# Entry
Amino acid sequence: PDADDDLARQAGASGRRRQVSQAEVLTGVLARVERARAAGQAPLVLLDLDDTLLATALRHVRIMAEFAKGRPRAAALAKVSPEAVRYTVTETAHAAGVDDEGLLAELKDFWFARFFTNEYLTEDDQVPGAAEFCRLIVRRGGVPAYFTGRDEGMREGTLRNLARHGFPLPGEDGAGPALLVLKDKFETPDLEFKRKGLDFLAAHGSVEAGFENEPAHINLFDERFPEATNVFVDTKHSGKPIRLKAHLPVVKDFRF
# Structure
């Protein structure tokens, strides 16, 4: 199926979102990549990492379990399942029945000191089907561009985890079947980084599609590359009051 036709069917004449199957969306992206390659272009597919390609729940679970050791009031955190993890660690703790404000502040600091480190990044599982989808992009002649709000200090753990799950990897010299685009500084706001990064990526090929779990970010992709197939990955997100553009397709994961 043609990806542009998919988008047209989903939006409809009224601009309201209509049901398009996940398989149609993913197949349409691969067809776009193949057509672009046949036309002599260098097709890129932009892919966020955290809770787009990689599920962060196990990273949260490990940190909460470590925090709970020796802290009887936090014992419930050691029993939190990956399915119960919310976007923030404090939201997850509240849902588990931990509501002492002093303990939550301590948990937040404990979490922050670990969540963005290479050691803990290797806990992440892949979102179902994500690695295979990226391999299919490569087979169709495209380049998966991992476009993430992680910073350069997280490169080692990111690459180890991607390799563990069988994702195509970038070469050490920047060549290879994939790209990895990271922030120079941790402090740079993600939206600011992504806005500037889209210009960088546009210079590296023809952007055929983008996948993001943050509504603000996928809306940004769509503004910069309106002809691309920009897809919202409905896992979990920051909860900021940003309305997803009505015509954008939605997937839960990367299974056909």
Observations:
- Residues 1-15 have pLDDT under 50 and may be disordered.
